[in-house]
Amino acid sequence: MNRIIPLFPLPNLVLFPHTDVPLHIFEPRYRQMIADVAEGERIIGMMLLKGDWERDYYAYPDIYAIGCAGKIERLVRMPDGRYNLILQGLSEFRVAREIRDRSYRQAEVDWCGVNPDSLQMTDRTMDHLRELLLSYIGEPARDAWRTVVQERGLRGARLINFLCFHLDLSPLEKQTLLEALEERTACLLDVLTFKLAERKMGPAGPGGGDSGPPQ
Predict the structure, then answer these.
(1) Residue ranges in the chain whose pLDDT is less than 50
(2) Where are the domains of the chain?
(3) In the chain, alpha helices (H)
(4) What pLDDT sits at residue 69?
């Protein structure tokens, strides 16, 4: 894959390898981006916006350093110039430097794809993950686990990335999981464990009641 790729920053989407996401492209600069990559490798780098991105959205708002590139698998150009597409996650990357010579953002990137072997799980870890999901999601997790693991056969990296993408977690939590790279399995277990503990403590947090400083 090329080291220079277009960037598509969004405020609420974190892509992971082996996951598919539908995208509707309507802004002129990103319509141009799709037109430019459609005849080539069809690679787009998905990035998460950070901080006060609304203020500079039409310029160059801050982005996180690590993103996930995807390849356009299905592309439909609409009569008015908009696009509908399916993007399939390929590999993590780190932005080395941005290139700002077009209407859309580009970057030279260092590919840092995770070796799937590093996300393999023992049977004991699989059982622990399943129990955490049952506690976090409830009874629907039982059928979902049967469908995803037993019927579709997802294991290791594909299962971890599937869960990181589809679980009801905040964009920042998902970005943390993406940035964990080879430690993503352990990070996902930690995130679920923390969220379950947080739920037990309730909205007041560990201090309970008034969380202000002691007088």
Answers:
(1) 207-215
(2) 4-111, 116-201
(3) 28-37, 123-137, 140-145, 156-166, 171-179, 184-201
(4) 98
